[in-house]
């Protein structure tokens, strides 16, 4: 909906939120309901996109202010009020407690808007700037009050709790906003409000957080207080004068201990949010569509702790004396820090914690993310026999690479005629394997280029300080934006997904001419098949030997064997077309596409479900032959999931698995058929099976019955 009608949707939302300028101070019930729904809809600001432009265009700050201040048009905001005057007015406004049930929405909306601003954002006009400043001041005041309450924060008062948490989160997003204007304003306002009480409040936060890992418990003592405490430390640590205080009071070690404690007890910790959205599981869940991951939902406690750690590390490295202190006095902490951060970066945590773990590691000269696809591809980089190109340096040294990987990841390193092409058709003639040599400019630093190539292949690299400057220059020239961001130690943008190695670009029209092998499924004819890249009308998929070899030892050995098959440009794959497309996706993305889920799966007819199931069983069988254990395990999980949701497919699954002699899969399918054994027997479906298979299902049914099924 946002993509289809972004501007009118936002315009209607903002106008609904801002048109209730009241004199009586009361709203009719239906008016309040409409306001609540408009505020809920405005939470689309949590996702980045062009709709943010329209929120500012239609003066969202004015609409939000009308929900905070009764008769806000009578509010006297001079053109240039002092911060002290603004705070005084804001205190009166907050004490009036106008429309308290909407307050948490206001803080969340302005927080998300701040988080997704551009760096050069500036408010549209002076009036809008004044309103935005006042909202920032109100949020900072609410947040500081939450910090001062400490143990008095009551989780049972849902409205007050949600206001405290959402205001805290909003201030956090303002401080970490890409917009220099909003970030500077939020820091300055919060620092002014904290004043002389800042260190006292900060000391309370540090003491409270130190209690959690040292108590020996495995649950949080107070969820809301923990949230406010962690957010408070992240905000305070972004202010120079308080960052030093936190470091001197062992805040760094305490935050690190909390991260380790969280890792050990993650399964016992619930969500952090008290906000009034969403109220039920049905509102959170969309059965057939995967929602974008929200940074502030999954592992939010860990994210807030890492935000604070990142600020402390940045503060330590920004001052020479602090850098020496960090590297010498904290050497015993550094090893634990690296281990903890690497576990988070490479684990199954949310994108936010993983990004910030990688961000902190960049200070320790570890750049990027390590994943299975990267580890596979770096193996190809280190194997000269896989290469088809050699880069020659002025020093006489050289490095072997793969043209397709360089074309995808560092295209500017290739001569124009070797890179992307505008034509979409490729020749059907068999290519001859040769090793092409390209002479690099004398200005290119050998070590820097080698490090760039390591990152291009694996998405991860370790760099010594002596190479950093030259690598930055090279990364900027090659438009390696993720590496450049990490080399420059730029904060991750709120909501960013984990970067992936974009190898699927190798299958796009501009690069498909670099394909050197064609995969042919078992179907020879398929109605409507039309290749975008060549004139062949039979089903096939263009691919690259280096990608296939990196993911399959069998194919790697085959291509090197010197046998007749190793020289052919076509490889027959004993799976159907649907299975082949899923297999290619796994090779290029390290992701096995899942079948439709939820209502889409439920609404598919039995034949369509069987087609999906058959594709995974065929791949499962192929993995036995090609020795691909990880992919086989993934297939098994998908197959069993399909059978769990559609037990009527069990008989067909048993037949297919038996035809491939996959007896473990046969036994698993029989267990899924056990609960409906009598139904299958009475319907005559078992008559089509061999007696051995029927006995297997009967035995599984007996065991199921004996276990109370």
Tell me about this structure:
With 709 residues, the protein is mainly α. The protein has a 3-stranded mixed beta sheet. A 3-stranded mixed beta sheet has the order 7-6-8. A two-stranded antiparallel ribbon has the order 1-5. The radius of gyration is 30 Å and the shape is globular.
Q: Layout of helices and strands, plus pairs?
A:
Blueprint: H1 2-18, H2 29-42, H3 51-57, H4 60-66, H5 83-96, H6 103-115, H7 126-149, H8 158-175, H9 180-194, H10 198-214, H11 223-236, H12 240-248, H13 251-265, H14 281-284, H15 300-318, H16 320-328, H17 331-345, H18 351-362, E1 366-368, H19 372-381, E2 389-392, E3 398-401, H20 403-409, E4 436-439, H21 446-458, E5 460-462, H22 465-477, H23 481-487, E6 517-520, E7 541-543, H24 545-551, H25 553-560, H26 564-567, E8 570-572, H27 577-589, H28 598-602, H29 606-626, H30 629-645, H31 650-659, H32 663-673, H33 677-683, H34 691-706
Parallel strand pairs: 2-4, 6-8
Antiparallel strand pairs: 1-5, 2-3, 6-7
Helix pairs in contact: 1-2, 1-4, 4-7, 5-7, 6-8, 7-8, 7-9, 8-11, 10-11, 10-13, 11-15, 12-15, 13-15, 13-17, 15-16, 15-18, 17-18, 19-21, 19-24, 21-22, 22-23, 24-25, 27-29, 29-30, 29-31, 30-32, 31-32, 32-34
Domain BTB: 515-596
InterPro entries: At1g04390-like, BTB/POZ_dom, SKP1/BTB/POZ_sf
Organism: Noccaea caerulescens (Alpine penny-cress)
